[in-house]
Amino acid sequence: MQGAFIPGQSTDDALPAPQDQDTTTIVVPVMPKWKGFFQGACAAMVGSAVTHPMDLMKVRMQLGGAGAQHGLLSATAGVIRTEGASGLYKGLSGSLLRQFLYSGTRFGVYDIIREKLQTEPGTGLPLHLKVANGLVSGAVGAVVGNPADVALVRMQADGRLPAAERRNYKGVVDSLGRIAKEEGVSTWWRGCNSTVARAMIVTAGQLATYDQAKEAIVSYAGSDPKHVSTHLSASIVAGIVASVVSNPVDVVKTRLMNMQPDPATGQPMYRGPLDCIAKTVRSEGVLALQKGLGATMTRQCPYVVIMFLCQERIKDLLTPL
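User: That's the sequence. What structure does it adopt?
Assistant: Structure tokens below.
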């Protein structure tokens, strides 16, 4: 008889084996570290390439003075009229390099920290830990990507300068090389404080909000965590939040990176982020810190949606590897 006691046999052997399906815990496999960096970089590069014209318009509007064009459509029409349609893609090489370095790093670091903080593999984190993770990941990514960010801002802003003052960079490699030669390698990290501050806010707004929104949609709406509608809804929420909280810091970062020495004194226009804020508010009013918000949201929301949809698809493709 099955399960009967046989002399000399262990009682553990004689008893029926426990049913695994009643006690097994589902564990999400730990993703190799390189996959987080790779999928984040690729997804962000796709999103950046699609939304680059809006990023360029955001930079141009943020750099404009009190008398500059404020409307997104009028500013876009002005670029096309003076520089042609190709002017909307100025600095694309810098944008792609920036996303490879910055977003690849922040996605990779975010995944590593999330795995370290999880009490059990595959479990979620409370919101405050997601936000803290986003802040740290964004800071690391910003330091790594700042040289490409400086090159990007200058290439995008070049068209608004008088012809005699334009730098006329041939591409991101030429830009980085000339900056190092003419102004020193340390200029690659000009405006890094503002870049780090913005990246911390943006990454917390994007990655932490996306994770939290995705969990809420799955929990309260009963959605499939792998369905594209879940990813779409969560990414839209993340894009809106990231746009609203990051725009003032983005204005300061853009102006610091693009500033030129005062022709009279030879000194930088701004001494730092706080000085930039004070001078901007004094000369243009407090609403100047929200310049380009329309362009930011028009660019940020599609970018975040495309980025997370691509990231989820790339993650599925890399899972068997």
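The two ends are 46 Å apart (CA to CA).
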